[in-house]
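Batch manifest, entry 17 of 40.
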Amino acid sequence: MHLHKHLVILLTILGSTLSCSSYGTHHQPIKPTRNLLARAHLKPWPVNVDHYGAMANGTDDSDAFREAWRSACSSSKGTEFVVPKNKVYHLKPIKFSGPCNPNLKVKIYGTIKASSHRSDYEKDRRHWIVFEDLEDLTVEGGGTINGNGRIWWIKSCKVDETQVCNG
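Output type: structure tokens
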């Protein structure tokens, strides 16, 4: 509530300043527009996977990512789901589901690496990371998503002709 009061005061002062400075040329006050109010919002709230228990130490970080996603998705503020740089996070198959509140961004600065254990994919061998039921999701950051495809290709019927091809 305290922050809201300061924002209202700031916008009131800004509106008054614009009104006073415009008087000399147009004789009509300029009112703050919706765009001006939208630009006055605060920075998005970062939801860092490390704060939810992700270790980036070679063990499975899926539970921490799941918890961080729940928090980011349910936030009423503009939120950034952050994967920090200079770290490698290991994930088993995972779904990031919505619907979520608006203005959600996924910022991948580090590396997300798929589990190399074929047994982790027994339920679904075709999907590793799934984003579903989301609108206006932004993914950015310059990090890496490593699907660890080598474990699949060496056992593929296209590489190893002794394997059976199943659609």
